[in-house]
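Entry 12.
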Amino acid sequence: MTRTTLQRSELPDRQASRGDAQSHSPNAQVFEPVALRWVRSTNALSIDPVRSRRASLAGAQSIAAMRRALQ
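Predicted 3D structure (tokens):
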């Protein structure tokens, strides 16, 4: 069984490339959504790059927004 969990990670190096209002402030923080995949049988946790990118492109900044983006 594979289960995907949703979290956010802070990636300040993407700040200038996002083009949002936060990128104009030198003290701004940018949060990127990260979807995690957990495999119960091996208790392994890994980042799901496809779902993470989909949530990022949708502009998800909250767990609820990630759920909507990944439906």
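Annotation: The radius of gyration is 14 Å. The first helix runs from residue 15 to 18.
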